[in-house]
């Protein structure tokens, strides 16, 4: 290697972009340049040196027009499936590169090349496509070195890939791995287009590097930390400077001072979280519904059968629950996380399988969770928050599902606030007086057995908490570390926020109370957290429903700081000037 080669290589890696627009169709790609780029792709490593790739160069305008039509139809169908805020962002992402580049390259994989005894592939057939992906990466980097832009078209479903294969005359045994658009560009964007459009963020490298065992993250040379410790260490107080700037701007806006009432408080809170005025608009938004079952169900605290938890998870995934209807109305995404459902769940699109345990143990006969389970469930919530924010979401909404989870929530609220079980225990799914008496006694017995100490929040979780409560606590902590607002739903979210605040008091600063549940413990939790609910509709469903109804209020508060003129800028007289 020559001096400077490493620096040039890393510069090319950092400057590689998936280019969608700005191609120059009038500038051809020189054949010698194309040969070098394809030669770099052909030099990629492959399992068993099988070299399973082929490169089909497509220049014919008519063929590319037919491919474009296939992609356009599937792009339209995909756009229709997106939540409203996502659909708006997606509208600007075009597929015209198929036509605007002088050539397209289809990269295929032959899964049979090298025969049945190919080293490394005989037990892992997927190593063929993986090897082909390495060739695509080499092609991409070489194209960047040559000043060529590359765009990867990925809207094909299986039927669409079959139509493209037939159009190009591909043998049946070949698989299309990548459809690439290649050409000269006006300029390379300074950052990935999806990041610039707010569609997604780049994950920090420190999130992705683990040492010895999964979960001990650190950059090389740093001391590894578990995810919970790393997250808590990253949480900082909200910005008082930004809060003051927001309050000042609100006072100078073309309206009587304080006339927006609590909406102004929300605007100030959002600015403090972001450390800027105006703050980023809290959209897109995503609601994470954490689902888990409870061993305390055996104490007869609810008339609903425990299998309803798993059945409702299926309902969420099918789009048939109240949370789905409200999320569609607000343009929010619904993310369903199995952190502890007792019944096995089939892997389906939209479900995040993160099961720590098949439900908790009965907290009246022993700890609900082991310490390791409590920590693991908290870290599920942190990871979920990280992933949703990295995917471009700017507001996180809490959701929950778990038969008997309000019993555990009441116990958590009593442990952290000192309330009596009779004050904190409610009717949950609508239980009768006799069941309420039994439920209250269950909470009292669990607290007497464990005597949970609020100074040990993980110990409290392990004693009387639920897996979804632990995950929700982590969800709040993860958002706080990233300075993203969290819109809390009902009593289960309130209980979880108490856990998060005990782990990191500053985490409460990113929380907004979407509503006040009819569950009595919720008001106790909110008072302890110092949060005022935005709505009071006597709701007690959970799922994230009450918080979703408050989402437009939160978004409107930020929008006001962005869009409303001040007296000075509008030329309107201020009576207090």
Features:
single chain; 577 residues; Rossmann fold; six-stranded parallel beta sheet; four-stranded antiparallel beta sheet; 24 helices; 10 strands; 47% helix
Strand tally:
10
Q: Can you say what the CATH homologous superfamily of the largest domain is?
A: Nicotinate-nucleotide-dimethylbenzimidazole phosphoribosyltransferase (CobT), large domain
Strand content: 5-15%
Overall structural class, as computed from helix and strand content, comes to: alpha/beta
User: Average pLDDT across residues?
Assistant: 94
In CATH terms, what is the architecture of the largest domain? 3-Layer(aba) Sandwich
GO biological process, one term: cobalamin biosynthetic process
Catalytic activity: 5,6-dimethylbenzimidazole + nicotinate beta-D-ribonucleotide = alpha-ribazole 5'-phosphate + nicotinate + H(+)
InterPro entries: BluB, Nict_dMeBzImd_PRibTrfase, Nict_dMeBzImd_PRibTrfase_bact, Nict_dMeBzImd_PRibTrfase_N, Nict_dMeBzImd_PRibTrfase_sf, Nitroreductase, Nitroreductase-like
Enzyme class: transferase
Please provide a written account of the structure.
- Catalyzes the synthesis of alpha-ribazole-5'-phosphate from nicotinate mononucleotide (NAMN) and 5,6-dimethylbenzimidazole (DMB).
- Pathway: Nucleoside biosynthesis; alpha-ribazole biosynthesis; alpha-ribazole from 5,6-dimethylbenzimidazole: step 1/2.
- The protein is α/β, with parallel strands linked by helices.
- It folds into 3 domains: 195 residues, 3-Layer(aba) Sandwich (NADH Oxidase), CATH 3.40.109; 34 residues, no CATH class; 272 residues, Nicotinate-nucleotide-dimethylbenzimidazole phosphoribosyltransferase (CobT), large domain (Rossmann fold).
- The chain has 24 helices and 10 strands.
- The strands form 2 sheets. The chain has a 6-stranded parallel beta sheet with strand order 7-6-5-8-9-10, sandwiched between helices.
């Amino acid at each position: 290697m020559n001096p400077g080669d490493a620096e040039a290589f890393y510069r090319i890696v950092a400057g590689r972009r998936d280019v969608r627009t700005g191609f120059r169709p009038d500038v051809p790609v020189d054949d010698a340049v194309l040969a070098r780029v394809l030669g770099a792709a052909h030099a990629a490593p492959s399992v068993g040196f099988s070299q399973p790739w082929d490169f089909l160069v497509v220049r014919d305008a008519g063929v590319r027009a037919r491919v474009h039509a296939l992609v356009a139809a599937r792009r339209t169908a995909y756009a229709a499936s997106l939540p409203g805020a996502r659909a708006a962002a997606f509208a600007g992402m075009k597929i015209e590169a198929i036509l605007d580049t002088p050539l397209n390259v289809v990269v295929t994989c032959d899964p049979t090349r090298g025969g049945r005894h190919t080293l490394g592939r005989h037990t892992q057939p997927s190593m063929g496509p993986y090897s082909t992906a390495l060739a695509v990466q080499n092609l991409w980097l070489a194209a960047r070195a040559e000043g060529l832009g590359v765009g990867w078209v990925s809207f094909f479903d299986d039927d669409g890939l079959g139509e493209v294969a037939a159009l190009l005359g591909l043998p049946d045994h070949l698989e299309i791995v990548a459809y690439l658009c290649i050409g000269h560009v006006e300029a390379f964007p300074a950052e990935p287009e999806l990041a610039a459009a707010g569609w997604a963020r780049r994950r920090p490298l420190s999130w992705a590097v683990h040492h010895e065992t999964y979960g001990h993250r650190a950059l090389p040379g740093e001391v590894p930390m578990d995810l919970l410790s790393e997250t808590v260490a990253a949480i900082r107080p909200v910005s008082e400077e930004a809060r003051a700037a927001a309050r000042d701007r609100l006072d100078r806006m073309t309206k009587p001072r304080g006339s927006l009432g609590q909406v102004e408080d929300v605007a100030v809170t959002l600015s403090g979280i972001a450390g800027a005025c105006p703050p980023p608009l809290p959209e897109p938004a995503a609601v994470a519904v954490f689902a888990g079952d409870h061993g305390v169900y055996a104490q007869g605290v609810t008339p609903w059968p425990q299998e309803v938890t798993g059945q409702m998870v299926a309902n969420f995934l099918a789009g048939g629950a109240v949370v789905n209807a409200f999320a569609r109305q607000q343009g929010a995404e619904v993310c369903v996380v199995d952190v502890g459902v007792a019944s096995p769940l089939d892997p389906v699109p939209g479900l995040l399988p993160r099961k720590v345990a098949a439900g908790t143990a009965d907290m009246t006969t022993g700890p609900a969770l082991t310490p390791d389970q409590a920590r693991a469930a908290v870290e599920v919530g942190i990871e979920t928050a990280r992933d949703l924010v990295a995917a471009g979401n700017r507001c996180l909404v809490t959701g929950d599902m778990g038969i008997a989870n309000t019993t555990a929530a009441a116990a958590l609220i009593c442990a952290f606030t000192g309330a009596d079980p009779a004050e904190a225990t409610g009717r949950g799914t609508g239980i009768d007086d006799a069941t309420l008496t039994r439920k209250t006694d269950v909470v009292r017995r669990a607290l007497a057995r464990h005597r949970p100490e609020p100074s040990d929040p993980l110990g409290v979780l392990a004693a009387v908490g639920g897996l979804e409560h632990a995950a929700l606590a982590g969800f709040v902590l993860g958002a706080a570390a990233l300075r993203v607002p969290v819109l809390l739903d009902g009593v289960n979210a309130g209980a979880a926020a108490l856990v998060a605040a005990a782990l990191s008091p500053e985490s409460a600063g990113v929380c907004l109370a979407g509503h006040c549940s009819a569950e009595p413990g919720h008001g106790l939790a909110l008072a302890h957290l110092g949060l005022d609910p935005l709505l009071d509709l006597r709701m007690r469903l959970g799922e994230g429903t009450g918080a979703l109804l408050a989402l437009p209020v939160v978004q409107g508060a930020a929008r006001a700081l962005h869009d409303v003129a001040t007296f000075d800028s509008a030329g309107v007289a201020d009576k207090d000037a």
